[in-house]
Amino acid sequence: MRPFTYASASTVEEALAGAGADSAYLAGGTTLVDLMKLEVMSPAAVLNIDTLPLRDIRHDHTGLHVGALARMSDVAAHRLVTARYPVISQALLHSASPQLRNMASIGGNVLQRTRCGYFRDPATACNKRTPGSGCAAITGYNRAHAVLGTSESCVATHPSDLAVALVALDASVLLRDRAGERAVRLADFYLLPGDTPHLENRLRPGELLAGVTVPPLSWARRSTYVKVRDRRPYEFALTSVAAAVDLRGDTIADVRLAAGGVGTKPWRLPAVEDALRSRPLRADTVKAAVTHAADDATPLSHNGFKPELLRRTIVRALLTLAGRP
């Protein structure tokens, strides 16, 4: 770990005033500290924001509002979340370990860096870590890597389970800097790698992610998160699906779907959604709708199974909501 200065902020205004282009905010630290130890991230200054008043969890006519410093475990267990947005609770409970969920913040989870082993190994080539150095994953062992949204520069997956659920529900993030605040749809907040994979999102230098807002959606009560992984405890997704269905009788009036573990960012599935609307929620209908879920996929040497696994995971999620897992 390289030397750095350390300070704590007691107010949001103090945090913003102390931030700079070569500084990093520290909350739970479950990602930042690991990457600093590996010298993958080496900020000159670390600003502790863990005591800021950004832990609220509330619901009103504009939706669910979660402060960026709310702990993952607190949000997963909150009655407003479990009752109105079970997909969020389930995605959080499928994340990490209980110990990490007790420490990690919602903002940190949304902003976490990729779990690509090549990114975390400074001895290997990684355009996300060192622009222009190459991507060792493309010709290396890439079973866990992305098949959607990839480029010749990067094939790393986005690791967050929570972000998949939030993208499915059209959530937004609230960003604050010294000039004011702005809201950005999470689906637009994350960037595709293209030829600049080191630019992962639209967060500006010194800007603070203050919270997350999920729009009101009464039928999100019928939602679920399905995660497929190599082992059950503390493992990242090979593929995952967040699904919410507005069911009128046996007919799908509306549906929201997003996938994780297969894309360079949480991957919304609008073509599948369109194919399902106004159709009966039955196995044959769902299987027909998912046919083109991964048409744009670009499998690598070790992850050619992912497109079919994605299709099967979508089917499983939707049939679970139909009461026929």
Automatic annotation (TrEMBL):
<feature type="domain" description="FAD-binding PCMH-type">
    <location>
        <begin position="1"/>
        <end position="219"/>
    </location>
</feature>
<dbReference type="InterPro" id="IPR016167">
    <property type="entry name" value="FAD-bd_PCMH_sub1"/>
</dbReference>
<dbReference type="InterPro" id="IPR016169">
    <property type="entry name" value="FAD-bd_PCMH_sub2"/>
</dbReference>
<dbReference type="InterPro" id="IPR051312">
    <property type="entry name" value="Diverse_Substr_Oxidored"/>
</dbReference>
<dbReference type="InterPro" id="IPR016166">
    <property type="entry name" value="FAD-bd_PCMH"/>
</dbReference>
<protein>
    <submittedName>
        <fullName>FAD-binding molybdopterin dehydrogenase</fullName>
    </submittedName>
</protein>
<dbReference type="InterPro" id="IPR002346">
    <property type="entry name" value="Mopterin_DH_FAD-bd"/>
</dbReference>
<dbReference type="InterPro" id="IPR036683">
    <property type="entry name" value="CO_DH_flav_C_dom_sf"/>
</dbReference>
<keyword id="KW-0285">Flavoprotein</keyword>
<keyword id="KW-0274">FAD</keyword>
<dbReference type="InterPro" id="IPR036318">
    <property type="entry name" value="FAD-bd_PCMH-like_sf"/>
</dbReference>
<dbReference type="Pfam" id="PF00941">
    <property type="entry name" value="FAD_binding_5"/>
</dbReference>
<dbReference type="GO" id="GO:0071949">
    <property type="term" value="F:FAD binding"/>
</dbReference>
<keyword id="KW-0560">Oxidoreductase</keyword>
<dbReference type="GO" id="GO:0016491">
    <property type="term" value="F:oxidoreductase activity"/>
</dbReference>
<dbReference type="InterPro" id="IPR005107">
    <property type="entry name" value="CO_DH_flav_C"/>
</dbReference>
<dbReference type="Pfam" id="PF03450">
    <property type="entry name" value="CO_deh_flav_C"/>
</dbReference>
